[in-house]
Amino acid sequence: MHTRTTPRQLPDRVNHDFAGAAAILDQAMLAHVGFCDHSQSVAQPYVIPMTYVRLGQTLYLHGAAVSRLLNSLAGGIEVCVTVTLLDGLVLSRSSFGHSMNYRSVMLFGRAEPVTDAFRKADILQRLVESLVPGRTADARAADAKELNATLLLGLPITEFSVKQRSGPPHDATKDMARDVSAPIWCGELPLRQQTLDPVIDPLLLEVGIDTPELPAYLRDYQRKV
Amino acid sequence: MHTRTTPRQLPDRVNHDFAGAAAILDQAMLAHVGFCDHSQSVAQPYVIPMTYVRLGQTLYLHGAAVSRLLNSLAGGIEVCVTVTLLDGLVLSRSSFGHSMNYRSVMLFGRAEPVTDAFRKADILQRLVESLVPGRTADARAADAKELNATLLLGLPITEFSVKQRSGPPHDATKDMARDVSAPIWCGELPLRQQTLDPVIDPLLLEVGIDTPELPAYLRDYQRKV
Questions:
Q1: Does A35 sit within 8 Å of B139, measured CB to CB?
Q2: Which B-chain residues 103-162 have CB contacts (< 8 A) with chain A?
Q3: Which of its termini does chain A have fewer beta carbons within 10 Å around, N or C?
Q4: Where residue A9 sits, what CATH number does that domain have?
């Protein structure tokens, strides 16, 4: 069943747990969407960075309705969506043993356009809300023209794999022996994506009336759906 | 010449400047490597997260010599390597106008294995050094067995595009009018990948002798080649 998602290397790092995949998708913000363009004699791979929202067992991607690339996806071709969180650098006793801690989801399937205007509007609102919880209370919702200019695609989260590594390095015995004779520091340098102070649109400062306060959802920003 | 890298959408966000591409590649740590597997009747896209090092006009990828995926790349098939830095969330006056600030390189070509043992060893050392400058003075360099177990591929950085967005939202006139009557906060929420405190390998604490100090290159870690 999972031919495309069954690895031959390091199988202990791979699983097919939906809750784990969902947690990674909900924490990350960026997907790398890969597909093959068959319009040439040799199939040409493309990898496009895109944002997304996961709702239940579907991953939604969107973009401009006139986008050539997005329209080729909407045609139902095979797609591979990979989402990766880089958690740290693993510093081992040997150059060869250096590695990265990460959590990654690789998702295969065919995307289908969401055409119902009500559903489309709702999902796009939930996309904004997933990136900035609370934001849709402030921002104007999309109008009919904007909805028509947007192509929204849903990809079922059914055929996927989760790959991850965490923790300290795993070194060979001969290198561990150096811990006594000539030890070097080894371990993990953790990496996290963090927010800096919000930067207000300078045009808001030019209006000459009271500048709106930073909303609570940005003062205490946390990524969650 | 740049058919694959000439966009039809938002051309002002795209350029082919080598220095700009190199700066993005040197700051990021993770590439998403896409290719098409032709062993099926329908070409199957794969997108794999990998680390890399840029040296001059070549991007080097590596992995286990027994890796099926990496070997298919080594065969010289078309590859698309995309590297993306997410710089911030753009909060606009409308849901539709929400966006992301980012810098992305999309690189096309065919990778070739580096077979010369001396060059291979040197490039792998420079990969470690690019991720953690100073590290190769401590970590043991790869031996012949480890070099043989590693497949190193070079991809020329010749056919590429740089896509980026920065700055505040660009809103429609009707939404700007709200700044006077019912203003909402808008602007950018910057995102940065940052390091947390290094975590020592617990095995180093079990040796019972002096624990090695945190090296200077980790106390003041900065990503650079």
A1: no
A2: 104, 106, 108, 124-125, 128, 131-132, 135-136, 138-143, 146, 149-150
A3: N
A4: 2.30.110.10
